[in-house]
Design goal:
3 helices, single chain, three-stranded antiparallel β-sheet
Length: 92
């Protein structure tokens, strides 16, 4: 899969996570830690006092909660895809 924007600063693990996020059908085993690492590489992530994460990417901010389990859920996948797409990342 190619992306609309694949900066050189993304390592192979970040690229794999990006591919997982945009896979069709959506993957159901995308690890939160890997997503958080990707978001830190492409945007700004700050942990709030309530344990949630404020992610700023491409001029848009979103507050994300760490999932109960190690993998993100379907709604988080949709939200993160939207942010990445608006910032120029995503499937062709």
């Amino acid at each position: 899969m190619s992306t609309t924007r694949e900066p050189e600063h993304l390592n192979n693990r970040h690229r794999d996570t990006l591919q997982q996020l945009f896979a069709t059908p959506a993957s159901h085993n995308i690890e939160w830690a890997r997503v958080l690492s990707l978001l830190e590489a492409v945007g700004t992530v700050e942990r709030r006092h309530d344990g949630k994460f404020r992610v700023t990417l491409g001029g848009e901010s979103e507050v994300l909660s760490k999932p109960e389990h190690k993998d993100i859920d379907a709604q988080q996948t949709v939200d993160i895809r939207r942010m990445l797409t608006k910032a120029g990342y995503g499937a062709d």
